[in-house]
Amino acid sequence: MSAELPPKVAELRALAASDKYASVDLGDEVRYAPGLAANMLEEMQPAAQRGLFLARLQPFLALAAIVGGLLALAGGVGGLAFAEIAARRARASRDTLVASFAALQRALPVILGTMVVGLSLAITASAAFEAIGLISSVHLTKGDIKLTIAAVVLGGGAVMVAWSAVRSFMKIGALYAPEEGTVHGRLLTDRDAPALWRFVREIADRQQAVSPDAVIVGMEGGFFVTEQTLRLSPGESRVSGRTLYLPAPYLAFLNEGETAAIVGHELSHFTGDDTRYSQLFAPLYAGMQRTLATIAMEAGNMILLRGPLLYAVHAMQRFDHGVQHWSRLREFEADRLGAGTEGRRHAASALVRTTIVAPPVRMVLSEAFENPDRAEADLVGVMVAQMEQRGWPDVRDHLADSTSHPTDSHPPTSERIRRLDVAVDEALLEEALRPPQGTSRCAGERLVADWSRLCRELSADFVMQAHTAHGEHRAFLEETAAAVSGEAVTLHNDTRLMVGFQFTASVLLATAGIAAWIFQMPLGLAGLPAVILTGSCLVAAAATLLAGMLVKRSTKVPFLVLYPDRLATPRLSEAVAWSEIEEWTVTYGNRFGLDLVLSEGALLPRVTGAGRFTKVLRKKRELRIGGYGVRGMKVDAFVELVGSYIAADKARRALGKS
What we know:
Layout: H1 5-18, E1 24-25, E2 31-32, H2 34-89, H3 94-135, H4 142-170, E3 181-184, E4 186-188, H5 194-206, E5 214-218, E6 224-226, E7 230-233, E8 238-239, E9 243-247, H6 248-251, H7 256-271, H8 274-299, H9 306-342, H10 344-370, H11 379-390, H12 413-419, H13 426-432, H14 443-447, H15 451-482, E10 489-491, H16 496-518, H17 528-554, E11 560-562, E12 566-568, E13 576-577, E14 581-587, E15 592-598, E16 614-617, E17 622-627, H18 635-657
Parallel strand pairs: 3-7, 5-9
Antiparallel strand pairs: 1-2, 4-5, 6-9, 7-8, 10-11, 11-12, 12-13, 14-15, 15-17, 16-17
Helix pairs in contact: 1-2, 2-3, 2-9, 3-4, 3-8, 3-9, 4-8, 5-7, 7-9, 7-10, 8-9, 9-10, 10-11, 10-13, 15-18, 16-17
């Protein structure tokens, strides 16, 4: 067209000069004078030039779409292959597991970024290609303009999502920084408990293990060793190096032989570099978990990020198998080494006894934490006394349990005993299920000179920790409850955009009607058609203006009124108590509104005459309070405001119960 229009214009000009009575057909079945036809074609030349320029861009956009698709495909396939190879190599050794996981951690931002950038490039280039195909038309229609705007929005949205995602991926490395651990307990030095230190060192010497640098005795958790830097609570002191943690409640139920088997098990982790492995691997593993949470938060409902999120989850799952493999092997080996200290029967008895002791220990600690004012001075003594009175639970219900450990999941107790080549017979159960006090002193009494004082100190620390937690929780509830004003907060519908649109539409319709009447002759609308068109436009303009005035007037009526205990709106016959709301969502996009799901006992209100865009779905017990938006408030601020009222109501009810 760009090449053909100039000679056609010249030809028509020549025809007009040579024959003033000539007429031509431009293909629309209308005869034009050559001069007029030449003018019409001349006016089309800029559009043709623009279309030519845009059309020359389309091959590059098509290529960009192909490159983007291939880039996303390469990122996905390459990432899957990388995760599979790394996961298989991880089963070769623990060192390889750490190295492979670290390699995945470094490669993950590149893989995810490649996938997102590729998809974004493909979508943006495809949208631009289609938009050019629309706007390069010489005769643009309203539909073409709408589709072009949609394509621009789609491409722009893809670019924004990609930019935001890549910025987040670049920060992934910071999520792998090792974190300091916290442990509640008392540090026992050689001077504080010489018998305990002598006991631990003898076990280390017998199995040629490395002695710990520090021993901590606490109330919570199970036995473990670590080389992670720990912050000791109460207080702010820090413990570094090789640390052995001993739970006081277990020491009150175990004898010296069983304790020796467990301590030998834990010290063997130092010998096999298990703690070094955990120190290296735990931050990587925790960092990957935080990475998944970050990606999931970024993804939301954005389909562009769903693929990268699914890939990251898949890569994590592939490594989970290797982690579990080495976790089980290292625990079986530690059991074997620990059993070599005092014999397999002691090791098996310790496994059974710690398994059945765990539930009552957790129960006493939970009760003391929930009611610290009524807690006894010696919680360990309470545990022993309760077990003396109630007896042991059925051990068979607990043999499939896994022992709690800070870094790894342990194999089931029954399998660990089987690997020790010890039968769970009557003799073993009789030894493991002996009375708590027994005929001899417990390991704690034998290894710590003033055992009862230590138990009282640990109990006091635990109760103080519970009081502190309750105080912090109450302060949080009071702060949350006070965040909401006692006065009613009135929110109005934000109708500015709709009113502006309706007023503009009414002006355009009125203008079109007047123009149709004034220019009826050139438009060929003389007579009745002109009257009908003008009248229709003016009636539509009046109706649109009236609708805009009604919408504007509706802003005088509140959209929502927020009270500390309830939500009211003229759109519903009854107010809704915050306590009756089970679920809530703020929707925006195609429509704006507050969607509420009420509890079973709540009374469902009716929609009033003012309830435009408001529905009550009785079967779903759902209220949909719709509008145009909240005046003077963005969606995020509205969500935060509603959330603060619901949280404040829950906080007040919790404070009332406490």
